[in-house]
Amino acid sequence: MSPDLPEFEVIIGGEEAGQATAERVEDMAESELAGAEAYGGWLPEAEIIETRGTWTEVWRRFRKDKFAVAGLVIIVILIVVAVGAPLVAPHSPLTQYDSGLTNQGQPVAPGAKFWLGSDTLGRDLLSRLIYGARVSLTIGVLANGFALFLGVIFGIVAGYFRGWLETFVMRATDVMLAFPILLLAIALSSAISKPGIWVLVVVIGIVYWAPMTRVIHGEVLSIREKEFVMAARLTGCTNRRILTRHILPHLVAPIIVYTSLGIATTVLFEASLSYIGLGVQPPTPSWGQMISDGQPYYTSAPWLILFPGLAIMITVLAFNLVGDGLRDAFDPQQRQR
Amino acid sequence: MGRYIIRRLLWAVVVVLCVSLITFLLAFAIPADPAKGIAGPHATPAVLMQIRHQLGLDRPLYYQYALYMWHLVHGNLGYSYINQLPVTQSILQRFPATAMIAIFGILFELLIGIPIGMISALRQYSVRDRAFTVFSLIGVSMPTFFLGMLLLYFFAFRISIFPNLGAYQGALHPLYFVLPGLTLGVTGAAWYSRMLRSKMLDILNADYVKAARAKGLPERVVVWRHIMRNAWSPIITLLGMDVGWFLGGVVVVEIVFGIPGIGWQAWQAIENLDHPMIMGTVEFAALLVVFANLVTDIAYTWLDPRVKYS
Questions:
Q1: Structure pTM?
Q2: A:248-287 residues touching chain B, CB 8 A cutoff
Q3: Cis omega before residue A283 (within 30°)?
Q4: Which residues of chain B neighbour A193 with C-beta distances below 8 Å?
């Protein structure tokens, strides 16, 4: 900070005066930063301090939210388990154990050998759940990343350049949102080929670009009217510079929030698709498919549905918790919890 | 107002047209021959040719689409490849079951979502608010098919209040539709309560609410006349989306409960490469969504004169 900041250790007028001083200091800091921006980021020190401050502050607020931290812990555990599946899983997910079926050919209930029971073919349910995490997380992350990538590009183009481009993009989202999304995904995946991980990523990305575009479009619309964008334009910044240096940084917060919230949605959607039988093909385990396989046994072997269901629910919940926590941390004024 | 509605109607027609075009292209992009599906795997090439000719599949794509749209404008959605019945008839036949699920679904959403949202907002940070917040988060994170199976297990198998899986034979008895409706309702209610809570929290600190309290109005009047009157907008939005979406057939719920409605039919049609049925069901669902959105927007301006149409 600059050395000519006023010292304000004496606060005579009580709280209000103190607040006024603080506001004045804030004003100064802001005008200083605006100066740095106007010089094209010429004052590197000021920028670095500001950046670090924001992230530390966000992290500090995020940490206070117990739900969000719990969500983050769950996500970390899930990732570790998924990556280290061969080390963590007690059995092979594909081996059909003789001891995995009762004499009547029924699945074995949870016990000493099969902690969460066995499935209809005598495979270990826990190991299949652990390997299933790989499919869910991979598709969830990649599909959402794809949708968000499309959403950011279309949203920026529509929101910043306006005109016929905006009309075209936003009308296209209207059409997309009128589609029954699950049917669209079913038709798409039958049209492309046998479902594999990449096909699912593309299909889910295509289905979800429209809502993402809407979100980013709204954000860009509000940013582009701000004074600093006008100032940048007045100083003769090119469109590219305004977009990358002035608008994109303000989109970082919503992009991070929707990374988390979006993964929750895509994991859920992938589970629905694989429940219908359009997920990754057997024998690769996926949670949704495990539930549909277990459905005929829901009275005699309820664990076949309970555990995969809980796995999906907890995963989605964790990403929702983190997403909510991030949103509140980035924007404390909108804090709702 | 009149011009606004006309413009919106025209736009709705365009959206439905676009949906039909995309569906049409998608149905044809599926790399399999419907003629083979009809004639079986051992059909001779001559028979296949003949079937394709009968169905008009040997014509150019644009011709087929134009012909389809021509029939559509005349209210004819074509005939199913599988059972040769008119698509319109099949849709109308399946619609009551889907509608029953939708009605129960919406009912439960409102009955669960609105009170929870209101209590949470009015008693912010209380134990109840926190409990409801957790409930909503779980509801939002719950796969519908998992919740459906849980409800079946507890309320059809363990305690036999509702009919078990596989009992549905096509009768429209309300008992069959309570659990499917509840499944949609609980997961949907979570969104209603979250949105309503945050909207109400915005309003609670508004000057007009303070003024209402300050002049000593009873709390009941403050809540219903001053807060709720201004907090309905997220409810209307969600309601509009859900009505269109549910009536178009919620595939997963229909599959879980073994109730063959519109969604189930569309899903089957895609599996069977039944082009006219795919087109018909998707068009039908899109039409409902677009129409519901239209009604929502008009309802907005009607309920709140401050909202301007652009």
A1: 0.83
A2: 264, 268, 271-272, 275-276
A3: yes
A4: 31
